[in-house]
DNA sequence: TATATTAATCGTAATATTGCAATATAATAA
DNA sequence: TTATTATATTGCAATATTACGATTAATATA
């Protein structure tokens, strides 16, 4: 096995987990934080900033792009990445709705 | 390889990714949603509710327990799980802070 | 005590992820 | 055109994750 049975879950559940999976690696968290913090929009600085090999960073960027949280812009020989604001905003709604569910105090069994 | 280099990241980055990793599987999202929704606190209902084998559900519950988001209470032969409110609340702060970072509009290169 | 009932653990197969060296590709500069 | 620079892709080894059958452990009930 090793294969997640996505079919048995709702679209919403798969959507939440797909986003969360991308946040589930510290390198991708670090990349996003760097994009947020940095005034210049970045590209290959991430390699020396984070300390992983260039192909590894490239791979993480690819996954961030795949879920749409970032987008890249070619500038000469380098590529500048930034947050995809609309998709980031949508993500915020999806994740917030999930983590802000109200706990039913009447039925606490612990 | 296949081994995440946690040492090169901050505690905060590792903390965020560790929480997110747990949300990164639809079964665990479904389990949490079921605990939130259900009036009775649950246990083995999850198996038939979700449609994965009992050992698989048990394994997912274990990971949710490991990060502290749920706790279990033995009731006879069954175990009743519920949200660990304090840890859930802490998680909310950590994740909210991360996803609610302000986008620096002046430096959008895309 | 014997027998259900329920959940956890063990063992294992299949697949996914991480990380990097080597290489390829793309764009500019000389 | 030929370097140079920056990023992406490929291929692969090491490790992690997912899923489940079989088994075990713990409690309840006959």
The total of beta strands of chain A comes to 2
Mean pLDDT of chain A: 93
Count of runs of 4 or more consecutive helical residues of chain A? 5
How far apart the termini of chain A lie comes to: 34 Å
Structure, explained:
The structure is a homodimer of 110-residue chains. With 110 residues, the first copy, chain A, is mainly alpha-helical. Chain A has a domain at 22-94: Winged helix-like DNA-binding domain superfamily/Winged helix DNA-binding domain (Arc Repressor Mutant, subunit A, Orthogonal Bundle), CATH 1.10.10.10. The first copy, chain A, has helices at residues 11-23, 26-37, 45-51, 54-66, 85-99; strands spanning 70-75, 78-83. Chain A contains 5 helices and 2 strands; from the N terminus they run ααααββα. The mean pLDDT of chain A is 93. A two-stranded antiparallel sheet of chain A has the order 1-2. The two termini of chain A are 34 Å apart. In chain A, α1 (11-23) packs across α5. Chains A and B meet through α1, α2, β1, β2 and α5 of A and α1, α2, β1, β2 and α5 of B. The structure holds a DNA duplex (30 and 30 nucleotides).
């Amino acid at each position: 096995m090793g294969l997640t049975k996505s079919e048995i879950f709702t679209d919403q559940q798969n959507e939440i987990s797909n986003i969360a999976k991308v946040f589930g690696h510290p390198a991708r968290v670090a990349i996003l934080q760097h994009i947020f913090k940095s005034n210049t929009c970045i590209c290959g600085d991430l390699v020396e900033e984070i300390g992983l090999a260039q192909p590894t960073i490239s791979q993480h960027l690819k996954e961030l792009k795949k879920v749409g949280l970032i987008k890249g812009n070619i500038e000469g020989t380098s590529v500048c990445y930034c947050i995809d604001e609309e998709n980031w905003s949508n993500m915020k709604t999806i994740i917030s709705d999930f983590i802000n569910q109200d706990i039913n105090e009447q039925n606490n069994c612990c």
